[in-house]
Specification:
Elements (H helix, E strand, L loop, with lengths): L19 E2 L2 H24 L5 H25 L6 H27 L1 H4 L15 H33 L19 H20 L1 H6 L4 H35 L13 E2 L1
Parallel strand pairs: 1-2
Length: about 260
């Protein structure tokens, strides 16, 4: 009998565990910071206060680098992860947001001197600086990607609510895991927050055209509220996510974590 050609049973090899690559904690903090920053920026422009454009450019630039880089990794790795649909919901809107923040940072930095000059013929406090007048022409073409980003958010908001995409926290996760059996609560909250941010984004151009108007007031409030939610919730996850990993693993080993690799 030729041993070289002898057939032997082939043992089935276990499939490699699928990782979860979302970076949702860091991206959520950056998105929250940026949304609050936009609200404060619009409020300062509304009050006619001097806009330190380069300072705002740096703040928005920080958010742009974090969101663009991590969201790109999230959406490109999505097809190979354990829950691709979650990567779509988190990565897509934040990639749009990161690119737009980068564009805003570039514009504010390169036009800082012009935007900060007082207007000699100012008609009111809201026009004491050039922000409103100087940005109207630029906003017309830029409104296209802004509206597209708003529609992206709106579509994801409907999908989250309709298909229960976010769900609830695992029972091993501290704090939020206590409410994990009520999936509708966390899922509905995220759907609502996405929807509010979508409406604010769709109205942003009209808000800038009339910073004293009701639309601008509503946009400022919506951005501030959604930004505060993302910042606080994501900061909370800095505690709950490591707690979930510790509670899932066995006595400090990674025995039970081989099928659950989490990259936050």
């Amino acid at each position: 009998m030729n041993l070289l050609h002898a057939s032997a049973p082939i043992l089935a090899q276990p499939e490699a565990p699928e990782p979860m690559i979302m970076h949702n904690t860091v991206m959520g903090e950056a998105a929250g910071m940026a949304l609050i920053g936009i609200a404060l920026f619009l409020w300062q422009a509304r009050q006619g206060r001097r806009l330190w454009a380069k300072g705002w450019a740096l703040a928005f630039g920080v958010g742009a680098v974090i969101l663009t880089s991590l969201s790109w990794d999230t959406i490109t790795a999505g097809p190979f992860t354990a829950k691709p649909v979650i990567n779509m919901v988190f990565g897509g809107p934040l990639f749009w947001f990161g690119i737009l923040l980068g564009a805003a940072a570039f514009y504010l930095w390169t036009h800082a001197d012009t935007l900060q000059e007082p207007l000699e013929d100012a008609a009111g406090d809201a026009e004491s600086h050039r922000f409103t007048r100087a940005t109207i022409g630029t906003l017309l073409p830029v409104s296209l990607p802004i509206v597209a980003a708003g529609l992206n958010l709106l579509g994801n908001a409907v999908a989250i609510i309709r298909f229960n995409l976010v769900g609830g926290a695992p029972p091993n996760e501290p704090i939020t895991g206590r409410l994990g059996h009520m999936e509708w609560m966390e899922n509905g909250t995220f759907g609502l927050i996405y929807g509010v941010a979508a409406i604010a984004t769709l109205l942003l151009v009209w808000a800038i055209r009339d910073l004293r108007g009701r639309i601008a007031t509503a946009v400022i409030v919506m951005y501030a509220g959604t930004g505060l939610f993302f910042l606080v919730f994501s900061a909370l996850n800095e505690y709950t996510h490591p707690g979930l990993m510790v509670n899932t693993c066995v006595q400090g080993t990674m025995e039970n974590c081989q099928e659950w690799k989490y990259n936050y």
